[in-house]
Amino acid sequence: MKSYRNASPAESKRKVKQILSVDRIPQLSSEERIRLKEVTDKYAFRTNDYYINLINWDDPRDPIRRLVIPHEDELAAYGNLDASNENSVTVRKGVQHKYRSTVLLLVNEVCSSFCRYCFRKRLFMNGHDEATYDITPGLQYIRHHPEVNNVLLSGGDPLILRTPRLEKIISTLREIEHVRIIRIGSKVPAFNPFRILNDDSLIEMFRKYSLPNRRIYLMCHFDHPRELTPEAREAISRVIDAGVICVNQNPIIRGISDDPNVMTKLWNELSYMGVGQYYVFQGRPTAGNLPYELPIAEAYFRIEEAKKKCSGLGKRIKYVMSHESGKIEVIGVDARHIYMKYHQAKHQKDEQRLLVCRRDDQAYWLDQLRPISGYVNEYYDGVIPENRAFN
Ligand code: SF4
User: Fold this and answer.
1) Which residues are bridge partners to 172 per DSSP?
2) Which residues, other chains included, contact 221 with Cβ-Cβ below 8 Å and sequence gap of 6+?
3) What is the pLDDT of residues 260-294, one digit of tens each?
4) Coil, helix or strand for 287?
5) Does any ligand 1 atom lie closer than 6 A to the CB of residue 115?
6) Residue spans of the chain under pLDDT 50
7) Looking at ligand 1, which atom is closest to the CA of residue 114?
8) Is residue 66 a contact partner of residue 255, using CB atoms and an 8 Å limit?
9) pLDDT tens for residues 342-391?
10) 167 CB under 6 A from ligand 1?
11) For a FRET experiment, which of 157, 181, 192, 364 has its CA 20 to 30 Å from that of 169?
12) Does 118 contact ligand 1 (Cβ within 6 A)?
């Protein structure tokens, strides 16, 4: 397959070809293809020739390979397809309202490639129909909720949509006075930067709707520094030039993004590009994801190790678990305990709540941990204690 490295400007407009079957990957042996078909019969497979060309086929543990090429262990019994019970916060088809000021719209059910560890892989499976192609009811809902100041477009990947379709969604959101921030969650800059490089109208659309007091944020999803190709860097640079704020968020995944040196390199490189690392997510216990998960304590120490070698900008990252009850930051692990705090809560009673749990190095998720003396939520009752020493 052709490499995109050192491509001439004409070649940089090249169309990326989709690969929808492991049979189309000549680097896999016929035995491997037969074995992996069993996995892809259950969990969808999709990638493209640009991303496949980033794989080092001489390394069977290559992280880029691991990200898109199925693994037989995905068939091991584990988790469920909606690990954070997104269904319980779905208020209209494709519309999730979990945190007071944020609404999430699932605008499609496809990505440039499918990450093997995807926590929303149910969307790519037959018999699941959750995204909405008619966002009118979602927009109606947002219009009637003035507390919503930011809307997250997700899926799937919104940047897969053709620009006129995406513009229709963004321009309609811009008509709603109380929606100040529009976020777009996307791995397109990693999977297919040509989607951005080939389409000047996308950049112009960003420039038109990312305004000084009403910004568009691109929530990028880079997992590994090798995804930061010249094409990906150029794509991000154009998006930033159009006035869009770019940040990065990714899960910590076994064999892909769990090496502290890799994390440090990724965060540093991104910071040089003007992309701050925002969240690192604990992998959700999603069906098919057993080979990709790390226990909480191990993940915490790996992230702390990575942070040591970063500047203050790199150290701003939050290691969080997107639990059914809220977004919970893992703030510390000592010999006996794991300390966590609600960063966002589904229910008011949990807001800012501190959780202290007995340390269990085999625990992957909050539900597997044992809280000590119940959940601690008395430390802050909404009244800020005053220091009167200087009065
Ligand atoms: S880009 Fe996001 S939604 Fe798409 S497969 Fe990867 S994790 Fe899932």
Assistant:
1) none
2) 185, 186, 187, 190, 248, 249, 250
3) 999 999 999 999 999 999 999 999 999 999 999 99
4) coil
5) yes
6) 1-6, 9-10, 374, 376
7) 5
8) yes
9) 999 999 888 888 999 999 999 999 999 998 864 545 555 666 667 666 65
10) no
11) 192
12) yes
Instruction: Supply the pLDDT for residue 318.
Output: 96
Mutation choice for ligand 1 from 67, 68, 104, 120, CB with most ligand atoms inside 8 A: 120
Contact 300, 334 (CB under 8 A): no
Quick one: which of 330, 338, 332 has its CA closest to 279?
A: 330
Closest by CA to 51, choosing from 37, 66, 61, is 66
State the pLDDT at residue 173: 96
Locate the ligand 1 atom nearest the alpha carbon of residue 187 and give its number: 1
Reading the block at residue 204, the tokens are 């112009």
Per the structure block, which two tokens stand in for 161? 């949509």
C-alpha 111 – ligand 1 centre gap (Å): 6
What pLDDT does residue 26 have?
Answer: 95
Q: How many CB atoms lie within 10 A of CB 375?
A: 16
